[in-house]
Write a structure and sequence with these properties.
It contains 10 helices and 13 strands. It is an alpha+beta fold. The protein folds into 2 domains: 126 residues, PAS domain (Beta-Lactamase, 2-Layer Sandwich), CATH 3.30.450; 201 residues, Heat Shock Protein 90, CATH 3.30.565.10. Helix 6 packs across helix 8 and helix 8 packs antiparallel against helix 10.
Amino acid sequence: MRQSARSSSADNMPASSESLNNRTQTLLRGIRSSGLCVVYHAADLTIRVIENPPASWPATELVLERGYAAVFDAFTSQRIRAAKQEVLATGAAHRLEAPQHREGEQPLWFELSIERDEDDTGEGRGLFISIVDVSHAKRREAALRELLYEVSHRSRNLLAILQSILGQTAQKAATVAEFEEKFRGRIAALALSQDLITFTNWQGVRLHRLVQAQTEAYHADGPVPVEIQGADPMLGPNSALHVGLALHELAANSRATGVLGEEKGRIVVRFSALPHGKRIEWIEEAAFPPIPVEAWGFGRTILQHVVPRALRGEASYVIDDKGVRYVLDLPASDPEISESGA
């Protein structure tokens, strides 16, 4: 540890003050172990004592010579000087934070607590400044602000999705009961995807896990007759919400008139990489009559328009006498879909 400068009175303490000297040395050892830096200024604001200076500061002799200008930039040094003058004049303690900028590195932050040293008459004769490195706390604050911004951003996205679902479901529903059933199902699908995202600390959801979760909600009896093929990419939060919504619509339809309801046939969900992008397919093979196009309702809008538009992709949705085939093509440049999950 760098040798600290001390006042002449501490260096030349008489032998009769040995007990006081021992207490002073004990106090100084405690200061060093706590990480606290203590600086004493004379009435003319010059630095007289620096005890336990931070390791990032320049040599103590340079700080004694140049003051805080040796540590901080000109603007910050002026702020500190103005605060010292105010405390010396008024006696009111002051606290401020100061960044130490370092070339090619993140700044370090220090909290300075300034108090006036008074004589027996109450007049100011100097200043005590205690300095603590608060860099870790500042970085935690920055990370928290970033997290709160991310939560706010994703909340706005969710509200926009909910607003769209609410309006379209109400417009397409023939009765209040039908509206309630379909709206509740779609909200539950979003909530399920959101739970999976939150569980991974907002990193995303694996496609296979998302397929299992959304299809299990419509097939509580025994194993789900869904075969998942291909890679298991990590879907970012936005992709997971929209792909989860598409899977919900497909699973809900299958429960009503398809494999998940009749328990006949098979469902294959496949992920594949294409030269121009990535593809997610839902292939349902079952013997049931096709649903007329005019009866598809908002589910068709979600699958063919809402989801692909949100993910900057394209989709096709075909129902015929062979079953159901839904294809969602996504751009190769989509950063929210990573086969490595990195």
